[in-house]
Known about the structure:
Elements: H1 2-8, H2 15-20, H3 31-47, H4 82-98, E1 105-111, H5 114-127, H6 135-151, E2 154-155, E3 162-167, E4 172-177, E5 180-188, H7 222-234, E6 238-243, E7 252-264, H8 273-280, E8 286-294, H9 298-306, E9 310-319, H10 325-329, E10 339-342, E11 355-358, E12 360-367, E13 372-379, H11 385-390, E14 396-397, H12 400-403, E15 408-419
Parallel strand pairs: 1-2, 1-3, 7-15
Antiparallel strand pairs: 3-4, 5-7, 5-8, 6-7, 9-13, 9-15, 10-11, 10-14, 12-13
Residues 200, 202-203, 207-208, 210-211, 215 line the site of one zinc ion.
Amino acid sequence: xEELVREVFKEPMCDNCAGxxxxxxxxxxxxxxxxxVLRTYAALLLDSGEKLDLDPSNFHGMKFRNIKLESKQQxxxxxxxxxxxxxxELSKSISKKxxxxxxxxxxxxxxxxxxxLNDEEKLQERLGIEFSETIKSEMNRELGKxxxxxxxxHFDLKIPDVTIVVDxxxxxxxLQLRSVYISGGYQKLARGIPQTKWTCRNCNGKxxxxxxxxxxxxxxxxxxxxxKPLLKAAGSKESALHAAGREDxxxxxLGFRPFVVxxxxxxxxxxxxxxxxxxxxxxKKVKVKGLKLVGDGRPLIIKLKSxxxxxxxxxxxEFEKDVDKKLLKLVKGLVKIPILQKTPTRVEHRxxxxxxxxxxxxxxYVVSGKRRVKFTIRSEAGLYIKELINGDxxxxxxxxxxxxxxxxxxxxxxxxKIHS
Length: 420
Ligand SMILES: [Zn+2]
Ligand SMILES: [Zn+2]
């Protein structure tokens, strides 16, 4: 320990930086206290007549009995007085920034300057790192304590509402706000609406002739109808909708599809979801139910994306010719054979080309005109229902169109139920 003391105080060193070299020894002390003990020990050695090559500024203000030491105060070589001075200012200015947002928990992520890290490395080379703590971890902890004191909010390592990034190279602080995640289920009661906002690729959302100045290709979307009141209430500008699958733009969805909406960089977190649910449900096109705040939405999003739900569809079809009722009876047999589907032409641009094998779990129909049949089909997750009907140029086998030797003129599709 005497060896360590000789090395540590060769340069101007504050209590925190000195104490950090033995930060992993003794509990019940902070580094400032440890450093003070080391400094006093060095002063005792000096006063007892030991010849030590130490920087006198380290003992400024101390009263020796046996020696005379000329010194003036100097900045700590390692932290440049971060712990004794800068931390006060910094924690105040950060707390002021935090005043503007609603949060309960925070985390500090410090970036020490290159100079600090360099000096720390040099000192560690001389002393070894057996008992020492890093400057980064002490900065995070001490800033955290100071901010806790001012704001009354709590430090949280796992899922903090705010992460405060302090960069000592640029002398800047940045707040990273954790997204608010809200789960629920939605119905889409109108056709012609995509699930998520389709930004115009031509102008990237700025507005151009292709998109008629809108910056997007559809006037609205399930996402926009759901997020509008939520974004406003949370003081957020951007959302992401994560849902368990999607219905086609021209299909309705009368079953409730599970989703998580993520509000990015929210200024507020306390949301009156009952009220917001009512506000969303003023829309005639989209209804939601069961809105609930979820702490960390990411595991739920992963689950939503990987869970496979059976679905029941209602399809109203008009065929090109009169329907042959004898042939129509054959479609009941679809429940007995696996359906082989090559990736449909309409999604080829975003899906890998492969052949899927899916099952039809149930099928019934009502003939409602010479050329019109209404089907109710329950299928395994991932079955392309339109292609089961029209055959997609033979890429889906077997298919209803081939079975009844009649082509589809038009169809309307509803998701009746998502069996979760
Ligand atoms: Zn220091
Ligand atoms: Zn555009």
